[in-house]
Amino acid sequence: MVPSSRNGWALLALASVVLTLAQAATIRDVIAYRAGNGPQPTDISKLTAEIITNDGYPVEEHQVTTADGYILTMFRIPGGPGNPPREGKNVAFVQHGLLCSSADWVILGPGKALAYMLVDAGYDVWLGNARGNTNSRRHIFHDPDARNTDFWDFSWHEIGFFDLPAMIDYALQYTGQTSLQYAGHSQGTTSFFIMTSLRPEYNQRIRSMHALAPVAFMSNLRSPFVRAFAPFVDQIDWMMRMLGVNEFLPSSEMMTLGGQMLCRDEALFQEVCANVLFLIGGFNSPQLNRTMLPAILANTPAGASVNQLVHYAQGYNSGRFRQFDFGLTLNLIRYGSIRPPDYPLERVTAPVALHYGDNDWLAAVADVRQLHSSISNSIGLFRVSDPAWNHLDFTWGIDADTLLYNRVISFMDRYN
Questions:
Q1: Catalytic residues per the record (predicted)?
Q2: Which end is more exposed in the chain, N or C (fewer Cβ atoms within 10 Å of the end residue's Cβ)?
């Protein structure tokens, strides 16, 4: 049963207070630990490379610099215990969603996580990280932590136009391949459609694309987070700029410690942590492994630009999949029109499979169908059979391997 909006917001407020108190209670220990004057306060969960190594798979870290100066980190898993690295493997590139990171694809563990399943199926797997997240907070000029920095002056438009092409080009050049398989979740699908519509030459480098919870059109989303702030997006954007706040929910030791203390097994507030996640993407309690919550919160949120949230809210308000709205004057200067242009989805010619869930509060079925009708080379619409399948189940669902990932890999194999 979905709670009323009043109860939902009360739950969010409670969770916020609890996390804040937990952070305040441990801040002295964290400061001492950072300064080398005390022990690590708790068992902080591992990040992507450490997770992969601990799971017994080889991992490589690669950096690529985008055309506009962002330094991005990718993790490569070239083989596994039963499938050693070798030259000539088919390449699979996997891209995370908003506020997430490459950790999403390994956190479920061997035999369950998409990255490991792809490796075990014989793929050379590359995990991308968009600008601004935990692994990609560097630029050749700009400091992400400076007060009036230009580092955060981007939305998911730039991720699609600059980041994805840079990472895909690097992976292909490094492996000697000319095309690859692509899987993305949420914003990882949004940015893909930007790349292939505005830079259509990249369609030829994609053997097949698997859109997990695809987000382009957003008129029918049900998430209370977006619906609450969308009507005030212009005022929020202006206020954040005036305050010099450009980063949204950065990753921190505090969030990690809060997750460890409040969300671990037998913790009093573990169910509050679970319900906060449900309020974002939809309720599906049986698919969330509560034991994983500390590890999830150690890696998520991974940080993002405020403009990424603003851009999604603009899409909800306008009902269109279009470029960032800078306001009438700047739109005239940048686009030559008072409104931003739509993304030309008719230029997306790569084979695209759209995987959706009935209970996805961010990628509503009606919006996914509209996207399906807007692209010319759709492999098809593929429903996850669980009627309660939500937005976050695509990465963290207990049964994601059997209900989703096996199908994705099967399709990839057909398009090699």
A1: 186 (nucleophile), 360 (charge relay system), 391 (charge relay system)
A2: N
